[in-house]
Design brief:
508 residues; alpha+beta; Gyrase A, domain 2; Jelly Rolls; 4 domains; seven-stranded antiparallel sheet; seven-stranded mixed beta barrel; 7 helices; 13% helix
């Protein structure tokens, strides 16, 4: 077992085999207050102050693994109608008959190893070894929800419709992920999964996502009407931690510092929801009087024709319209209102997860959201916070990542000099999931890496040798080496980067 650093708040434990990973996961799940993400050969443990606990955790897990301890998970049955588009091709590739493929898939139990690219998607291992088949050369643009599939040594079930390159052998009507269930994921790491063949399709439909964007009701009767928006406006709070093992990233505000500043300035103390506005150019009409502030990317703003300053508490009267122009720099502006946005929570959070499709739908022109009532008798202790101008070159400071040794020898043995020695340009691929940097290719070890847990701010190095920065809606696991992890404040700054911005990476 190796213990590898992963930024300021995480450790990556590396093991020799999946059984050891699952044993460690089962042991720590009830022992530590931390986010746990098992993967093929690693266990990611994320919590503030976790670095200081590394020796004790390592000793605990070494003892556990040495004793061969393993806790069994649940046994889950998944009924399947075997009529997938690739069933005949899987038979050809394996040299089995179609009936033999079905028998091989159902007669040998599978084990849930680790979460994947979507909420509720779990990689299943340990099935009949004859079913190993390669992924499709060209992935499908859309795989239907409930599809049962094979790829390499894995099997899995697509919880929702998504692109995918696995070979489809059947379908199930069982809901793999439903925020209304407890727990929300049908299958969790460590569970045993048995596929049961059906002659006829089932009748239970998969749950449809509810659109909560237009939600005018609140106890206070106050609400905001979206008059216009250049891009969809997202509701965001502190996110939904604790579910990354089943493929649900924490999400939350992309620029956490800007979000938290806005919440403090209007007196919200419990992680109330705010509006995340991309590239400004939006307008909101108030029903009822409310106290608000704008943080994040500074943009010209006015209430009823009166200019309001950035990071300055202001009042929007009943019937008045708040109008936002385009920010000169930065990407995301946060509108925080006293009491917070009142919209139904999904899995304990009002955040929109753009990758997983969880949380309230994006707000469009004509949508209405309620505003909760804040505690009475409140007045802002600070009504203005000066903001430093953004530099021409964004300096992002980073800490060691678990795979910094994948950088070839450069300025020092760890390769940090190679990562820090260039100025990068932000590419066109920028969203809440991540940002791709463009510049001189970095040296990189050859080969591939099994999927392992990743954190917000991770600096991945794909085969293109162009770094990718993970942001708020990043997938919980990834297969590219993480050579560094941005410090918290730099991860916030990265969330404000636009295509074409200049970036320099510096060791923390």
């Amino acid at each position: 077992m190796r213990v590898l650093p992963c930024g300021a708040h995480a450790l990556l434990f590396e093991f020799d085999a999946l059984d050891e990973v699952l044993a460690a996961y089962a042991r720590l799940r009830g022992e530590v207050d931390a986010e746990l993400v098992p993967a093929a050969r690693t266990l990611l443990v994320t919590a503030r102050g976790i670095a200081g606990s590394a020796p004790a955790l390592a000793a605990l897990l070494a003892q556990e693994i040495g004793a061969g301890a393993e806790q069994a998970g649940r046994e889950v049955e998944v009924p399947v109608t075997y009529d997938g588009d690739d069933l005949a091709e899987v038979a050809r590739l394996t040299g089995l008959g179609v009936d033999e493929v079905i028998a091989a898939h159902t007669e040998t139990p599978w084990r849930a190893a680790f979460g994947g690219f979507a909420p509720g998607f779990v990689y299943l291992v340990g099935g009949d070894p004859r079913l190993r088949v390669p992924r499709l050369a060209s992935p499908r643009t859309r795989v239907p929800a409930g599809s049962v599939a094979l790829a390499d040594e894995f099997s899995g079930v697509y919880p929702t419709s998504s692109p995918g390159g696995w070979r489809l052998i059947g379908r199930t009507d069982v809901a793999l992920f439903d925020p209304a269930m407890s727990p929300p994921a049908l299958i969790a790491p460590g569970d045993t999964v048995r596929f049961v063949p059906l002659l006829e399709p089932g009748t239970k439909p998969l749950p449809e996502a509810r659109r909560f964007a237009s939600w005018p009701g609140s106890r206070s009767g106050r609400r905001l009407i979206v008059e216009r928006a250049l891009l969809p406006v997202l509701v965001q709070d502190r996110g939904r931690p604790g579910l990354e093992a089943v493929g649900v990233t924490a999400s939350g505000a992309a620029d956490r510092g800007a979000y938290e500043l806005g919440q403090r300035m209007v007196g919200n103390e419990g992680g109330e929801a705010a509006l995340e506005i991309t590239l400004g150019q939006a307008a909101f009409t108030a029903v009822g009087t409310m106290t608000a502030v704008l943080t994040g990317a500074p943009c010209p703003a006015a209430v009823g024709g009166r200019a309001v300053s950035h990071a300055t508490v202001f009042t929007v009267g009943d019937g008045e319209t708040l109008t936002l122009g385009a920010p000169a720099t930065g990407l995301r502006t946060y509108l925080s209102v006293r009491g917070g946005v009142d919209i139904p929570a999904v899995l304990g959070s009002r955040s929109r997860d753009t990758l997983g499709g969880l949380g309230p739908a994006p707000l469009l022109a004509g949508d209405t959201v309620g505003i909760d009532e804040g505690a009475p008798g409140w007045a802002p202790a600070v009504d203005h916070v000066p903001q430093a101008p953004r530099p021409d070159v964004a300096v992002l400071r980073y800490l060691p990542g678990p795979r910094e040794d994948w950088l070839a020898e450069a300025a020092d043995a760890a390769g940090t000099g190679a990562l820090a020695g260039s100025t990068w340009t932000v590419g066109d691929a920028v969203d809440r999931v991540g940002a791709r940097l463009v510049g001189a290719p970095l040296p990189r070890r050859g080969g591939e890496l099994p999927s392992e847990g990743a954190v917000r701010g991770a600096i991945q190095l794909p085969p293109s040798r162009q770094p990718v920065l993970f942001l708020a809606d990043h997938p919980p696991t990834g297969g590219y080496p993480v050579v560094g992890v941005l410090a918290d404040e730099s991860a916030d700054l990265a969330a404000q980067l636009r295509p074409g911005d200049a970036v320099r990476l510096e060791p923390y």
